Amino acid sequence: MHKPDIAAKSPFAVAVEAGKDYFWCSCGKSKGQPFCDGSHKGSSFSPVKFTASETTTVYFCGCKHSKNGPLCDGSHKLLSL
Ligand code: FES
Ligand code: FES
Fold it and tell me: Domains in the chain: how many in total?
């Protein structure tokens, strides 16, 4: 199992719109964080779809080590960097 790159040590706050789909970068290589830009190609990673249930601000994981899929769960605090 390959480890993702750590794109950032903190989450990305994004204003999402109800009903829209977002594709979170799980590999950490995208230049358009926190979303996939196709840079995962050739790796074992693929983007994770997030559908916004409401129009709000969402905190997407930037460290790519969250146990809660695309969303930050605080795991970035445990990373030794
Ligand atoms: Fe990271 Fe696509 S660029 S999952
Ligand atoms: Fe990854 Fe918080 S930024 S868990």
Answer: 1
